[in-house]
Amino acid sequence: MTAGEKRTQLWVAYGSGGVAGTIRKIEEEYVVTMAGADDVHGTYPSMEAAKGALHAQMTPGSEWPQFREH
């Protein structure tokens, strides 16, 4: 990594209908984007908060998605 680059990790959330969204860790923040969305849903201080926010945006009654790091 060169100076000025930010370290990023990516998790993809898979629901019963396929990809539900993504969570990216950029430095100390977790950024949620829903599948098919052009804009970020929100930024959260922890992975658990980001997972909860992503799940809350899924269709009501959806099961908890599987999160896989990529």
Features:
5-stranded antiparallel beta sheet; alpha+beta; globular
Describe this structure in words.
- The protein has one domain (8-69).
- Helix content is 16%, strand content 43%.
- It has one helix and five strands.
- The protein has one helix at 47-57; strands at residues 8-15, 18-26, 29-34, 42-44, 66-69.
- A five-stranded antiparallel β-sheet has the order 4-3-2-1-5, covered by helices on one side.
- Strand 2 and strand 3 (29-34) form a beta hairpin.
Estimate nothing, just give the exact number of structural domains: 1
Low-confidence stretches: none
User: How much of the residues is beta strand, in percent?
Assistant: 35-45%
Tally of contiguous helical segments? 1
Structural class: alpha+beta
Helix content: 10-25%
Globally, the shape reads: globular
Rg result: 12 Å
Taking the alpha carbons of the first and last residues, their distance comes to 18 Å
State the order of secondary-structure elements, H for helix, E for strand.
Answer: EEEEHE
What does the largest sheet look like? Answer: 5 strands, antiparallel
| Tally of DSSP β-strands | 5
Mean pLDDT: 93
The strand order across the widest sheet is 4-3-2-1-5
